[in-house]
Every structure is written in C-alpha cells, then in structure tokens.
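User: hey, got a sec? need Aspartate ammonia-lyase folded
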Amino acid sequence: MSVKIYSVETLKSARRNQSIETKVPFILNGQEIEVDKKIVNGEMETFELTRPIGEMLRSGSLAQYKDLVRKVVLDVELGREQVPLLYKPIYELLSDPNMPKVIDAKWALYGTVIFSEHMEGQEIKFGSLQAEHGPVARIMTYTAGFEYTKEMKDFNDSFSVELLNKAMGEAYNALLNHMYLSPIIKANYKVDNKTSYQGTAEEDVWVRYYKTFNKALSDSRTKKRPGTILLASSMDKDNIEMALKGGYQINGTTYPAVSGIDSIIYYDGWEITVGKKDYSYQGVEQGKAYLIRPRRGFKELLKKDLEIEAASGDLSRLVEEQIVGYAYRGLYAAIDENVQEITLK
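Assistant: Yep! Here you go:
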C-alpha cells in the first residue's frame, strides 16, 4: 500500500516542482494593496529594492514606501515557505470573512442518507443530520510585529531588515502547525481512545510496531471512528515505515502491509529565541503516535489570514517604522470522536 508522507522535507521537496501565482494583500495608510507572489519551479521570485533602505525611509515618497512594504510582504512569504503547513490533511478549511467571534456547532453537522429497496406500500427511509461532539469554536486574534530603528535607516541595514521579514513568515506558519496539531498532542485521552504497545520483548521493534498499528486500527474501527492518518515523531520514522510497508517473512510468519493508514505526518515542534526568552511548540513525543479520522471532526476556521500593515514609528524610541502582522483564526477539534492515542514503547 502506498502511504503519503508529510514532513518538512517532503513538502519542501514537492514545492520545488510547482509553479504557483497568487496575490497577497497588505495595508498601507489604511488602503489595501496587493502584491504578486510567484513561485516558478519551486523558486520564489523576490523583490529587490532599487534604492538603499535608509533613503527610502527618508524620502517620504509614497511610491518608494510602497515598494519597501511590498518587499516586506514578499520576504514574509519567503519565510512562510521555509515552514510547511503539516496539519492540512487533517482539517477541513472553512473560510468566511464574516465569521463571528464565537461559533456554535451548526457547521459541524453532516448528513446521513441511505438508499434501500422500496417495497410497495412501505414508508421511505428519510435521511437525518448528525453532529460531532466537541467544544464551541472561537475566532482568536494572533499578532506579531517588528520595528525598523533609526540605526537601520542611517546605516542602510537591509540585511537585518530581510532577516526580520522572513522571521515573521516562519513564526506564523510555525504558529499554525502548533495551533492545529497541539489539541491532538496535548489531549487527555480516555481508556477507549488508547492503544497500548503490543508484542513481546523477543520480537524486533518494527514487528511490535506492526502489531500495535493493527491493534489501533482495529480499536478505532470497533469504536466506529476508523483512522487513516498517523501523526508521529520523526524519531520513530524508520520503525514506523518498516512496519507499515510489510511484505516480510520471519520464522514462517508473513507480515503483509498494514491496511488502513494512507498518510503519515511527522511533527517535531518548533523553537526559537526572541530577545532573551526561549519559545517552543511541543511536537509529538518519541514513542507516541495518534491515529486520526480526518476532516469531519476537524475544522480550520479562517476569518482573515496573515495580513501585513505598516505604520509610522515612535521617535522617542528611535523607531522609524513599525510592521505588524495579524490574523483571525480558530479551530474545531472533536478529539474523542476521531483520535486513537498509540503508545509505541
């Protein structure tokens, strides 16, 4: 069976073969403007400034200032390309600029209809609406920003400016991976949602993984929530993929491919130091994995994706310009109805 692998490396590799063109909005002086983002054969076109950054900040020309913010936006997008979004196979995207701050579960409804042979005089079986059980969803505001200092302007420090721009893009995509995967990783699972490590100490590790995955699949199917996506740590990658591949024979026992898991997401978290403070997003713990039934119980709620806004700075702090990025996002995750926690050690 062919299993699709989602990791930072595989998604970056796939991106290298793509050509994409989109428009990215930003706000300047209260006006929304768009810049073209182009990726040709995996290479993103960047925007090069025609004048030193200090001159552009001093000139007061709207056209030059617009070019500067265009570069900021494209640098941010370049940063986003470095941190691929791993959660997408799990969640269904619901995008609506008119979403309220608090959302009830009506959009989590799904229909159930069945056709049956009709006998004369018999009543037709009518379909019904079902709903997943889960928390009420809220749209949250996420922000980040940085400042162009007077020193950056006076010394034409374009290198530091580019680093800040790209760092914002990396941080935003890292936030999204954390936002949508952490509810699965950090949940407190009930006994019915747990599968323990299978096999004996005398068996190869991958054989024990093999037996554990088959038990988890059986458990999730018995509970009427069959999982198809495995969320795991890359530290367990070799044993996981060997176990799923199958086709081996040991001591007269044949181990066919594991049937039911069609995708694996490897997520190891993210960490960075800002100033003197360390920040980290927890990845999947080595020896743990999560078998997930995707889409129906997982909704990615998007009111506004990341938008960049430029504003004048604060002279009292020698700040020339402030760049702010903000987004309105939320999620709905019915964990108990769709996830099986697996222990692999």
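Quick note: The chain has a mean pLDDT of 85. Let me know if you need anything else on Aspartate ammonia-lyase.
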